Fold:
Amino acid sequence: MKKYIKIFIFFIFICCFTLIVSSSCSLLSNDISLVNEKNSEEVVDDGGFDLNKELENISKKMVSPPIITSHKLYEEFTSETDKKNIIIYGEAIANSKIELKINGKTSDKLYQADSYGKFRIEDGVELIEGQNIVNLYSINSSGIISEPTKLIFILNVKRALDFKIYEDSQSLKEIDQYYYSRSYEPQAFIPGKGIPLSEVYLKINDKIIASTQSDSSGNFSFDGVKLDRGENSISLWCLNLNQEPSTPVIKTVLVLNDTLSPEPVSMSGYVSGDGNYLNWEKSSDAEFLSYKIVRVDEPCKNPQYPTDNVIATITDNSVTSYKDDNVISGKAYFYTLWVVDKAGNLISSNILPLPAPKYYITLKKMENIQGNVIARRQWYTQYYEITNTGNVPLNIQPVFDFFILNPESDPEMALNPLWAVYIWDPNTGTNYYSNEDIKVSQVADWINVYGTESVEETVTYNNDKSVKTTTIVTTIRQTQEKDGKRIAVSTVTTRIIKTETATGKIISDTSSSDSSESIVEPEKVGSPIPGIQPGQTIRIAVKIVNVAADNGDKITVHFHFAPADCQGYFFTEDMASTGDIQVTSSGK
Structure:
């Protein structure tokens, strides 16, 4: 029974002993002495069990782990580089060796604790970005290794700079991981921000290609950076205040060349009560990026991307329709659909007007309290209101019709009669037409159903001047309606008369005729009145001045106003007429 009691006491002691040893090395040696003194009084039992000897063997096999006094568990550090050295020190068993394991790798070097148990890892422990696990072991003189003292350190790398990659410094279109370029040697613009007034280095793949100095705010940039086809690893770093390189910031760009424009698509559409409906063919481009729907409300302006209004961007190439409900009912809009690929190649569809453009105007004659008999050097003014009743902005082209003098002027009296005619904007004072030297009647060919005739005669002689040749060219020009168009028929008759110079006897008299037809456009006069919006009304005036007409002389003036587009084409079938404006001179 006594033997079992001793064994029980032995196990209790072992548990207490282990607790005491883990607290400190100094306590371990004292406790062992006390235990030895106590057990020295015990007598070896009759079964041969020697408690003192067992305790001595156990104490030799148990080594206290190091105690770290320099750092705490889960301590965090920050660094501008991706590595950081820290100095670790603490206490262990006197004269023991210290073994170090960092992130699973055991150091080749052992560190020595002094006679007081103090140790210091002078060359430092290198931490890397993120979590680091550091284990320290004590090794006693018998080569027995302690349990590890485990430390966990966190290294947070503070990036010293950041940057972006753009196609160029003007558009600032950012390049992401994949860069589809139309060039085989694309260039990039790289701006960023780092440590103020520091040297910044740029490396692409394995070659440092440039360096620059950041300004006082840390801003820097590299322009015209050449990228290679394929993968480009772009690294930037700067020197910190200690002239140490900061952690490189690395971005990867894969350059893919695409020099072919997408295939064009055709667009159609219709107008419904709630908007304009657009439809198109699906793009077949393998590097499709987006559809861009561009809209303008100017009929002569081609809707261009990216300069004009983009009303929709669609990135799914299977989408082939769109409803534009941001419209004014009845107003004409002009659409194009642009297919854009990842390299920036693009192509447009046809121009689609919805609804069809209408170029209509109305002309309203205003009441005039002024009489139409005017003295010399007086003005006669007739006002009109012109309204754009179409659905597009338009210009208004004044078209000369005719003015007729009654009586016709006498060629020998250059100043009798003499009139001046203007088309005048009373708001701005602009003259869109002016003719200050009207001495003879003028009738435009395009409405001259009665025809006009001109005769040109030339006389030539042979070498000895014995034969006179008279050539008479008569041109008759008449305008008529034909198939909805105004057709001018010109008949040219050439008569050649040969006579003897001395006697006047006719040697020969021959005639030939030739006719031709041509489509006649009105004669444009002056300048178009620009930019009249749908529904807008402007006021215009026809002014007639009696410069030097005699008493009873009359002038009749007739103008048309034609709606015109911005390219100068005007629509004769939709012209509005002033009618005849007749003014009589009082001769005073």
In short: The CA atoms of residues 185 and 227 lie 6 Å apart. The domain at 162-257 is CATH 2.60.40.10 (Immunoglobulin-like). DSSP finds three helices and 41 strands in the chain. Confidence is low (pLDDT under 50) at residues 1-6, 15-44.
